[in-house]
Design goal:
This protein is α/β, with parallel strands linked by helices. The protein has 16 helices and 17 strands. The protein is 37% helix and 17% strand.
């Protein structure tokens, strides 16, 4: 199924790339490398970049998604519209895929001799020249992986660096947009090409609502719906996310000294107004998971549970513990994180990990559609009263 999906989406991308020529935006463009983290982190950064481009009134160049495969040393760049439909984004702001921009616009408005990389401050690189180590004080936009492979995908080299400090990406407060326009007018700086994403992780609270414009491509939606129709009973189902790989076990050890680890603000609030992260929220045990599911099963006529996980799906444990309820427990085989995200988004109720950016993607999508979600081990007795008053969207 994954192979068929890849072929279908590839044909879709080709058909889109052959559309009519685009017009130059006199307000300029924002371009960036999504070079921090995997998909969940990149999605947070994308929403920030979309809000930033809108605040500057520049067209956002949609970057490919950066993926890492076990068998390859270098990262892979997957076109933005491989996974998502571009048209819904245009309802909010002007966008263009990087493939189309580089093919149709870059040769004239951003020729090789005018390509400057932007960074907040110098990104030091140790170069070995003639046996002598020398510190390079520029942005070094192509230094390391995925930076180098990302720009190389489009044959982009930079002739200089621009440090934009003390400007920042928060265009929702103060007059940041006006300051960017004054320092970098589009007639002199048609393209702002950032070394990293012009957005924060986790996503800034004001940009969460932009997820409503991020819609799965039709092939991804079709694959998710096909799984639901063929593998799950024709009845309401619960979608759950279990984050329990060894890297996550190590990350959860930092909970005691970190008040808002990773995507924790999605349930705890951006100022911890709804409590502090606990080990159970980060790594719920079997008892917590089963207890939460049994409560949900009492509240509605669910007949199945779909499990997405980076490691242990707990299929046997869940099936045995819920056999009295005659619940079907399934996972996607072979696994595909994007189709799994789409399936979770379509579930009748979703339970996720408060700390995880993978969960955060699903939660934002469901919030934008008014669908119910909850988190493992949250709220606890100390925060239950506060959380009842919390408008999470």
């Amino acid at each position: 199924m994954l192979f068929v999906l890849t072929l279908v989406i590839f044909k879709t991308v080709l058909s889109i790339s052959c559309a009519e020529d685009v017009q130059v935006d006199p307000n300029g463009y924002v371009m960036y490398c999504p070079c921090m983290g995997r998909f969940g982190n990149q999605a947070d950064h994308f929403l920030g970049a979309l809000g930033f481009a809108h605040g500057l009134n520049r067209t956002l160049v949609l970057p490919p998604w950066v993926e890492y495969r076990p068998s390859d040393v270098k990262s892979h760049q997957v076109p933005f519209n491989f996974y998502f439909d571009v048209k819904p984004l245009e309802e909010f702001h002007r966008v263009i895929t990087m493939e189309k921009f580089m093919e149709e616009l870059a040769p004239t408005i951003w020729p090789p001799e005018k390509r400057i990389s932007f960074c907040y401050m110098s990104r030091n690189s140790i170069l070995n020249k003639g046996g002598q180590k020398e510190a390079d004080k520029g942005c070094n936009a192509k230094d390391g992986n995925p930076f180098g492979p990302f720009w190389d995908t489009f044959k982009i080299d930079f002739v200089g660096s621009e440090m934009y400090a003390p400007l920042h990406f928060d265009v929702h407060h103060g007059n940041a947009g006006a300051k960017w326009l004054k320092k970098y007018p589009p007639d002199k700086w048609p393209v702002l090409a950032f070394t990293g994403a012009p957005g924060s992780f986790p996503v800034q609270e004001e940009n969460r609502a932009l997820h409503r414009y991020l819609k799965w491509s039709e092939p991804v939606r079709a694959a998710a719906m096909s799984f639901i129709h063929k593998e799950l009973p024709n009845a309401p189902f619960i979608g759950i996310h279990l984050r329990n790989g060894m890297d996550w076990v190590r990350a959860c050890k930092h909970i005691p000294e970190t008040k808002n680890l990773f995507s924790a603000p999605q349930c705890l609030g951006y100022n911890n107004e709804f409590g502090l992260a606990t080990p159970a929220m980060c790594m719920p045990n079997k008892e917590i998971i089963i207890c939460h599911l049994r409560k949900l099963l009492k509240s509605s006529n669910y007949e199945s549970v779909f499990v997405a996980s980076d490691n242990n799906h707990m299929l046997k444990e869940l099936a045995n513990s819920l056999k009295k309820n005659k619940i079907v427990v399934k996972k996607l085989e072979p696994g595909n994180p994007h189709i799994e995200l789409a399936i979770l988004g379509m579930s009748n109720h979703f339970v996720g990990n408060c700390i995880s950016s993978f969960t955060a993607f699903v939660k934002r999508e469901r919030d934008s559609r008014g669908l119910p979600s909850s988190f493992w081990a949250f709220p606890d007795e100390r925060t239950a009263k506060k959380s009842m008053q919390h408008d999470e969207f």
